[in-house]
Amino acid sequence: MTDHVIITIGREFGSGGHEIGNRLAERLNIPLYDHNLIAMAARKLAITNEEASQVDESILGKFLSGYVVNTGDYTVFMREGEDTVPLSDKVFRAQKEIILELAKRSSCIFVGRCADYILGDYSNCINVFVHAYRDDRVRRIMQIYKLDERQAKEKIKRVDKGRKLYYEAHTGREWGSIESHDILLNVSLLGVEGTVDALESIYRKWEQS
Fold this sequence. Notes:
There is one protein chain. With about 210 residues, the chain is α/β, with parallel strands linked by helices. It has helices spanning about 15-30, 35-45, 50-55, 60-65, 70-80, 85-105, 115-120, 135-145, 150-170, 185-209; strands at about 5-10, 30-35, 110, 125-130, 185. The longest helix is centred in the last third of the chain and has 23 residues, at about 150-170.
């Protein structure tokens, strides 16, 4: 591949991963790919943004919760033929192709979408996972979505479960583990700005090496 430096950010829901990616992209003056990958995949598949959004990083959890199967069974199901491939997998494939193409163009940041796994053969890739204490995540989600504490906790549990199932089914790795990522950062300890500072410093050093 190329010598572009790529940053991938995995994140717990409510940890501030999207905000961190946005701020970092502005500082480094490089593109950020997050929710905009959904629109790109939708165009590629000739479906609506709404259809792609409904399956993005979440539908696999709903699928597995409705059927008693393991990841191997799900993979066999997907490979039986294109007509039986769930839309969630078609969107994943489309995003995978897009991520690989974008990584060839320039340095950039990817948030979620199993980008760390997809770019596994890319040597200049900094794979980060950001998390935060649960109480901090609850407060953040309550503020952003105007929810009460119970609703925020339920939303965090639901979204994290979906992301975990999605990531692990597509990669065979443990979501959020140090084995799956190069760097784990606790936003509760560093703050959003401190986390951006740390990632900028890592990027600058990596870029110069």
